[in-house]
Amino acid sequence: MLIIAGLGNPGSQYAGNRHNIGFMAVDAIQRRPGFSPWSKKFKALISEGELAGEKVLLIKPQTFMNLSGEAVGEAMRFYKLGPENLIAIYDELDLPAARARIKTGGGHGGHNGVKSLDAHCGREYRRLRLGIGHPGSKELVHNHVLGDFAKVDQTWLSPLLDALADNAEMLVKAEDSQLMNKLALAVGGKPDEEKPKPEKKPVAKPTGQSHIHQARSGGKPNLPTSGPMAEMLKKMFGGKGE
Asked: What is the pTM of this model?
């Protein structure tokens, strides 16, 4: 069994916030056929279903972001699951908007929801980070994160969430590179394997000839006029240094 936890804040006033993209992601997955309606359990909203032959529990903690781990940890203890059975989906300031990255383990990067998950669930769980972009200065972060997505963001947000839901089986099967490619294509990017690789510059072969070879071949050599090499060439060829 797997738990897919989307992070966010409960309440209609937060529903459109950038900080709630994790909620939006699991909502998109839950709308696919085979998932039960949302119900209350574990201080959270949960929905049960199946993906790729695996039982899946979608969970949206209702404890507010900073205490997300309380709800997810309770569900994990109930089902006797470890961090390897958890996938967390959340917003990432340090990724450009519309970009996605997935990894296992790592730091919380200042994200209080992730910090809470680490404390209650262990750290070696898979983390799907969805980029919301950085506003440019630390002073603007709070309002940016708790601000709603702009209308222009819908050009990438809806396609990204739809692609994640359509390819959720890849998430369950840990087909991470394939999933990242699907998400990149959905927002108009290029899949990783098709990104142009830097061209290797050909190494220039030396075209010059040594002083000795120039002298033997009859070409006009650029001979040194002083030093041991000049003395040696004078003895070998009897010429005068230029």
From this structure: 0.76
Say if CB 126 and CB 180 are below 8 A apart: no
Q: Is 91 helix (H, G, I), strand (E, B) or coil?
A: strand
- β-partners of residue 45 are 40, 60
Active site (catalytic) residues: 19
Tell me how many helices (H) and strands (E) the chain has: 9, 7
Distance between CA 71 and CA 74 in Å, rounded? 5
Measure the CA dihedral 160/161/165/168, to 10°. Answer: 60
First to last CA, the chain: 86
- 173: Cβ–Cβ under 8 A, 6 or more apart, which residues? 52
Phi-psi region of 11 (alpha: psi -120 to 50; beta: other; left: phi over 0): left
| Of 15, 173, 42, 55, nearest in space to 120 by CA | 42
Query: What is the predicted pLDDT for the residue at 193?
Result: 46
Q: What is the pLDDT of residues 142-194, one digit of tens each?
A: 999 999 999 999 999 999 999 999 999 999 999 999 999 999 999 987 665 44
Helix (H, G, I), strand (E, B) or coil at 50: strand
Burial pattern 191-200, b for ≥16 Cβ within 10 A else e, equals eeeeeeeeee
| Residues 3, 122 contacting (CB under 8 angstroms) | no
SS3 state of residue 197: coil
For residue 202, give Cα distances in angstroms to 171, 195, 199, 205. 41, 21, 9, 9
What value does the mean pLDDT of the chain take?
85
